[in-house]
Structures are given as structure tokens and as C-alpha cells.
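Chapter review: from sequence to fold.
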Amino acid sequence: MHIGLNAHLLSGSAGYRSAGIHGYIHGLLRHLPRDDWRFTAFVGAANHMQIDGVELRRSRLDTESPLRRIVWEQALQPWQLGAFDLYHALAFVAPLPLSTPMIVTVYDLSFIHYPERLPAARRLYLRLFTGLTCRRAAVCRSSANRPGGMWSVR
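The C-alpha cell string follows.
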């Protein structure tokens, strides 16, 4: 089985980006089973790290900016996913035009429970695209609450 993982929030440098979701993604990639499965992680152009047993596919587009990352994720990435048996959206959202079976990791629902804490654009993006992703995902769990009742998850 060949699994593609969107790891664009994996930071290759020190700073605030190397905390939170980065830590989860880095730990996951370092501990994936190596038996009969192949893993390809999509990362940003500036990410130069190496992880044993995982092919890192660097974007040609600088995806440090959230807007550029979203454009890459929704408009460019879908055309790179045809060879995968499964796609793992590691941070809330998967490409809308995706025919590959997928799973998604939803870390929290703060954008729903505490909307005033996020800028309006980010809050609206996460609310809309996370909901659309979870409705199509094979598996959808949240550390804070099961979003299934909210989005009719299978």
C-alpha cells in the first residue's frame, strides 16, 4: 500500500512553526510502520529534513504562507495523488477534487467552540473545508470531540 501524507505544516526550521501540529506530524512520520507500506509526505519547498523510510516530496511552490499553502493544497496537489492507495490529510483539510480514499486528522474544534479566537478568514476556511473533508473521509476523529454528529461523518 502506498500512502500519501500532506505534511506541509511540518517545519524544517526552529520557531513557532516547530511546535504544536509540527510535533505531531514529525512524531507520526518517524514512527510509521515500515513493513509492506510505502509513505510519501508532501512538504514545503524550504523543508530540507530527511526521515528514514519516508519519501519527502517537496513542493515547487513556497507554502510557508497559509494562502499559498491552501492554493497548493486545493489546486495543485490533487493532480499529484493518483498513484496513492490512501491519502492522509494531516491538518483538518483535504483537497476538494480528490478521488483517492482518505483519512483526516482533526486536532481540535477551537474554530467552532471559540470562533472569536481566530481571524475571520481562518475560522471560515476551517469551518467550511474541515466539514467538507470530514463528510468524505473514511475516518474522522477529534481530540476534543467527535465531529461526526456535526458533519454526518461515516
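Two observations follow directly from the output. Strands lie at 2-6, 38-43, 54-58, 86-89, 102-106, 140-142. The first strand starts at residue 2 and ends at 6.
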